[in-house]
């Protein structure tokens, strides 16, 4: 579904990603691991067309999208939940969810299944997004992305700053989306145990390059932890 090859990304004169290759197959959950500052978020922004990518290829469902604008990528079925969630604090929960329909050209309605996944949101529809806890805001951000009925869901650090009970809830939702819906998911994460629990395949990034990869069921956690702790 997603095929990234020989990707380079930069900010002005600084090269952040160098010859990155990463694939995500349909129905798969893939986790990109790495310490802070190694280029993981830049990689996700590259997929969405939010940073300059002078070299390489980004194919989605067999179509080259590296030169396409962000809105085109969203309308092709890529939903992105950025680090920090980026919900609108002055809008209600319901209004935030309705914004998810913009990827569909503003058409359609909120699928009730998002409330099955995140029941707490249905009890807070009129509450302002800024009044929610960090964990509730993360659930809202993921639900807003799902409103667009994506083919590929991208999550940047979904466990960051979240209490353990909500981390478990988000893990449950990810596994349910894969198993019941067949949704393809790409996650950037530092929390190794979470990544191992929810993903099928992993990559480890260091200094803008992929340094390790493999099936999660075969992962050597001690070796990977060394890469994350350098």
From TrEMBL:
Keywords: Amino-acid transport, ATP-binding, Nucleotide-binding, Transport
Short name of any one Pfam family annotated for the protein: ABC_tran
ABC transporter domain ranges (all copies): 2-230
One MF term in the entry's GO annotations: ATP hydrolysis activity
UniProt-listed SMART domains: AAA (SM00382)
Source organism, top-level taxon: Bacteria
Keyword Lyase: no
One GO biological process term: L-amino acid transport
CDD domains: ABC_TM1139_LivF_branched (cd03224)
Similarity remark: Belongs to the ABC transporter superfamily.
NCBIfam families: urea_trans_UrtE
Protein name: High-affinity branched-chain amino acid transport ATP-binding protein LivF
Name of the gene this protein is made from: livF_2
């Amino acid at each position: 579904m997603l095929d990234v090859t020989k990707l380079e990304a930069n900010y002005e004169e600084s090269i952040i990603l160098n010859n990155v290759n990463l694939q995500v197959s349909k129905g798969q959950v893939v986790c990109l691991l790495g310490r802070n500052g190694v280029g993981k978020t830049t990689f996700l922004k590259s997929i969405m067309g939010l940073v300059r990518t002078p070299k390489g290829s980004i194919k989605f469902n067999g179509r080259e999208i590296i030169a396409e604008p962000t809105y085109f990528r969203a309308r092709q079925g890529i939903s992105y939940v950025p680090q920090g969630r980026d919900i609108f604090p002055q809008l209600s929960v319901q209004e935030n969810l309705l914004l998810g329909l913009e990827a569909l050209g503003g058409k359609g309605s909120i699928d009730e299944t998002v409330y099955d996944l995140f029941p707490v949101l249905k009890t807070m529809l009129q509450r302002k997004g800024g009044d929610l806890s960090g964990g509730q805001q993360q659930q809202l951000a993921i639900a807003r992305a799902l409103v667009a009925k994506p083919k590929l869901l991208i999550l940047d650090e979904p466990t960051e700053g979240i209490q353990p009970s909500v981390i478990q809830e988000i893990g449950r939702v990810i596994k349910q989306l894969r198993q019941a819906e067949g949704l393809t998911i790409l996650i950037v994460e530092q929390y190794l145990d979470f990544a191992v629990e929810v993903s099928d395949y992993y990559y480890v990034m260091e200094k803008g390059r992929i340094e390790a990869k493999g099936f999660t069921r075969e992962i050597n956690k001690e070796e990977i932890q060394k890469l994350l702790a350098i």
